Amino acid sequence: MKKIGIIIFARASSKRLPKKVLKIINRKTLLEIIYLRIKKTSKRIPVIINTSKSRSDDEIVNFCKRKKVKYFRGSLTNVIERTIKCCKNFNLDGFVRVNADRPFWDFDMMRSMMNFYCSNNYHIVTNQLSRSYPKGLSCEIASTNIFNNLDLNKLNKNDKEHIFNYFYRNKNNYKIFNYKDSFYKKKKNLNLSLDTKKDYIMVKKIYESDKFEKIINMKTKKIIKKFSKLFYETK
Questions:
Q1: Cβ-based burial of 54 (10 A; exposed 0-12, middle 13-18, buried ≥19)
Q2: pLDDT by residue (tens digit) across 12-56?
Q3: What's the pLDDT tens digit per position in 139-169?
């Protein structure tokens, strides 16, 4: 059996909305909301917060300690190196990448993609090779071997920050499966992420429209249908 971990990439130094991962939404931080939605996939799969050694991310680590969440710290700018070290530290054969700006993370989608990955022989299972999902639902699952075999000195700055770019650019050298969903293809221009103050106001409206437990447990597709008037489209 492959040992898979779910890695949440979080940092406090976001440019458009600083400390967005620690923004309070219905008495919870954005980071905790994402963590709680992810844990619905399986209590047995390790969930790890991947952050930096920068002092600006000390608050993220304090959150992990308070909530007894696994975490790993590494380089702020060399995210791909930090990822490799994180996977080695937790002895992972593969990992799911989740960015910490996903308040409506689709735990059903991730579960299906993980099952597909574990049942097949792909280096990467993704829904981003040709985009057919709304912003805020990008999901990638990869074997740690393809990362371990990289020559990091040959990667450019962008590759080190956006850890799947190199593989997508060299897709003919890897076995990559692009995961699709007919419902999401029709909604692919919707914005479900939290990047700006406008997004924050929208997310707060949804999470404070009912009991927190009801929204946190609500399936993503139902959220989109129920609150369709609050979501806006991006290009």
A1: middle
A2: 998 889 999 999 999 999 999 999 999 988 778 999 999 999 999
A3: 999 999 999 999 999 999 999 999 999 999 9
C-alpha to C-alpha distance for 37 and 183, rounded to whole angstroms: 20
* Residues near 19 by beta carbon (within 8 Å), at least 6 away in sequence: 12, 59
* CB of 133 closer than 8 Å to CB of 91: no
CA 95 to chain centre: 11
**Taking a C-beta distance cutoff of 8 angstroms, is the pair 225, 170 a contact?**
no
> pTM for the full model?
0.96
Helix 58-67 to helix 30-39 angle, to the nearest 10 degrees? 40
Quickly count: other Cβ atoms within 10 Å of residue 119's Cβ.
8
Q: How many CB atoms lie within 10 A of CB 110?
A: 23
Q: What does the CA dihedral 17, 18, 20, 25 come to, rounded to 10 degrees?
A: -90
| CA distance from start to end of the chain | 40
- Taking residue 37's Cβ as centre, other Cβ atoms within 10 Å add up to 22
Closest-CA residue to 11 (of 27, 33, 26, 30)? 30
